[in-house]
């Protein structure tokens, strides 16, 4: 289903002309209303009156997340607080939160792009959708909620967490769609299986998953677990929230960007120079129609590439490849560059591993080292219900560095005996797998089932230890 056929199937020449016109208006609005942009444009020597089209984009200044924090809370807004209809914000775990806001017109645009995205992902008016993204300052829950109501879905606003209630409502209400993070969808499905329930029997048709990078290997796990079509969503609060881009259920070969509202480009993260179509780099987005918080050339930090070719689904909108990771999340281990998503893709090819893992990066002693924590599927030992140690503080299970194993590397805990030959062999096999796929020789830790924390929101894949 195509929600807005005029925009989603527009010829490239018409879309490019519309983008150029809107870019000029967006820049004029930002410079007129926001002192930060007035100074930034002046520093680049750019007169907004000379912006005539998309080709002028590379002359414009970048915006980065630090600019929002430096002007916390209202410094980048183009309208007074009294004209805002809603505020959202990041968690602020690394300092002050990133605050974003919306006028009534911005909320209308958000509902529109979310309706397009939901339709592309397989939703149809009249269906039931269970929204298990968090509600509140996080944009996920309310973003999906408003878009779903706008397109005529019936919404079950259960929010994130409370796995038992999620299962109850899925069984009793039998929605066609589930919207949540992919890691939470895995957790719900696994919890059902532990209760002797089959997730495939609740009747879900599609899952709308985002808010964290995930791989095609994870997609296969989710589709096998639930019997659904798993669709990737992309958004970020600085631009609007969810609804920036989405895969179509028909092809799922890249995420269609709502480019009449969000103008994309990919740059070299080191030089800032634009890259051609198909080249991998950092995604940069410019908001073409937002009122409250204009964003010009916002550096997302997300690594992807762009494909301008029309899609088999009939949409002509430019597509971005699935996010590989964040440019600042790339790990450099003994000269090898690796993203957590690459490790995930390799680990999920091993059928004897549960689809949960953590990467433990230790930077406390000179060169960083990495250990990979993974576990076999199965119910958790009874002792683990009351005590689960921090993986870096207790290396439970078999520790295999592929090249050597020692008797001190073997631990027995809570009925889990890592000395069993099959567990040791699994650790060696995983190490060889990672070496073959990524040229890494990491420490591999096979831990008891359920030791690795399950996520009811965004999964924590990387845990770092730094020198005091």
Structural commentary:
With 468 residues, the chain is α/β, with parallel strands linked by helices. Helices cover 28% and strands 22% of the residues. The protein has eleven helices and 24 strands. The protein has helices spanning 5-8, 12-33, 35-43, 65-70, 104-120, 139-151, 163-173, 182-194, 216-226, 340-347, 421-438, and strands spanning 86-89, 99-102, 128-131, 154-156, 177-180, 206-209, 229-236, 241-247, 255-257, 262-267, 281-287, 298-304, 306-307, 319-320, 325-326, 331-333, 336-338, 357-363, 369-375, 398-400, 412-413, 416-417, 443-447, 462-466. The strands form six sheets. A nine-stranded mixed sheet has the order 4-3-5-6-7-8-9-14-13, sandwiched between helices. A five-stranded mixed sheet has the order 20-23-19-18-24, with helices on one face. Helix 5 (104-120) crosses helix 6, helix 7 (163-173) packs across helix 8 (182-194) and helix 10 crosses helix 11. It is globular and about 70 Å long. It starts with a helix and ends with a strand. The model is unreliable at 380-414 (pLDDT under 50).
Strand content: 15-25%
Q: Note the overall shape.
A: globular
**What does the average pLDDT come to?**
87
| Count of separate DSSP helical elements | 11
Residue runs with pLDDT of under 50 for 5 or more positions: 380-414
Short précis:
This protein has helices at residues 5-8, 12-33, 35-43, 65-70, 104-120, 139-151, 163-173, 182-194, 216-226, 340-347, 421-438, and strands at residues 86-89, 99-102, 128-131, 154-156, 177-180, 206-209, 229-236, 241-247, 255-257, 262-267, 281-287, 298-304, 306-307, 319-320, 325-326, 331-333, 336-338, 357-363, 369-375, 398-400, 412-413, 416-417, 443-447, 462-466. It is of the alpha/beta class and 468 residues long.
């Amino acid at each position: 289903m195509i929600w807005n056929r005029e925009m989603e199937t527009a010829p490239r020449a018409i879309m490019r002309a519309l983008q150029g016109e809107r870019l000029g208006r967006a820049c004029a609005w930002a410079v007129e209303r926001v002192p930060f942009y007035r100074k930034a444009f002046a520093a680049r020597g750019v007169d907004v009156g000379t912006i005539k089209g998309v080709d002028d984009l590379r002359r414009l200044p970048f915006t980065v997340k630090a600019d929002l924090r430096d002007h916390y809370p209202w410094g980048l807004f183009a309208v007074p607080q009294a004209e805002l209809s809603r505020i959202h914000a990041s968690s602020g775990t690394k300092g002050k939160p990133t605050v974003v806001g919306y006028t009534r017109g911005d909320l209308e645009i958000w509902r529109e792009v979310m309706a397009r995205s939901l339709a592309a992902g397989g939703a149809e008016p009249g269906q039931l959708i269970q929204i298990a993204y968090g509600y509140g300052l996080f944009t996920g829950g309310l973003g999906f909620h408003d878009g779903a109501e706008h397109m005529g879905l019936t919404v079950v606003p259960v929010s994130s967490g409370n796995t038992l209630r999620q299962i109850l409502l899925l069984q009793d209400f039998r929605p066609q769609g589930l919207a949540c993070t992919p890691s939470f969808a895995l957790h719900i499905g696994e919890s059902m299986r532990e209760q002797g329930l089959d997730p495939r029997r609740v009747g879900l048709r599609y899952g709308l998953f985002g808010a964290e990078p995930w791989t095609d290997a994870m997609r296969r796990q989710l589709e096998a677990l639930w019997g659904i079509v798993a669709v990737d969503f992309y958004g970020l609060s600085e631009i609007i929230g969810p609804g920036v881009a989405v895969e179509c259920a028909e092809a799922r070969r890249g995420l269609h960007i709502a480019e009449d509202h969000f103008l994309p480009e990919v740059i070299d993260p080191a030089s800032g120079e634009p890259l051609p179509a198909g080249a991998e780099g950092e995604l940069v987005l410019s908001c073409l129609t937002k009122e409250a918080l204009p964003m010009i050339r916002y550096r997302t930090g997300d690594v992807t590439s762009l494909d301008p070719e029309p899609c088999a689904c009939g949409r002509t909108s430019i597509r971005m490849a699935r996010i590989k990771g964040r440019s600042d999340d790339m790990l450099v281990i003994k000269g090898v560059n690796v993203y957590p998503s690459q490790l995930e893709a390799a680990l999920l090819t091993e059928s004897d591993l549960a689809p949960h893992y953590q990467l433990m990066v230790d930077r406390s002693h000179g060169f960083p080292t990495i250990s990979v924590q993974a576990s076999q599927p199965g119910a958790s030992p009874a002792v683990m219900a009351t005590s689960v140690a921090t993986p870096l503080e207790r290396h439970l299970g078999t520790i295999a560095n592929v090249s050597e194993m020692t008797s001190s590397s073997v631990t027995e805990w809570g009925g889990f005996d890592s000395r069993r030959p099959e567990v040791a062999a699994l650790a060696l096999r995983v190490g060889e797998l990672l070496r073959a796929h990524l040229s890494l020789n990491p420490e591999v830790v096979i831990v008891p089932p359920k030791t690795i924390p399950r996520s009811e929101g965004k999964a924590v894949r990387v845990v770092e230890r730094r020198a005091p």
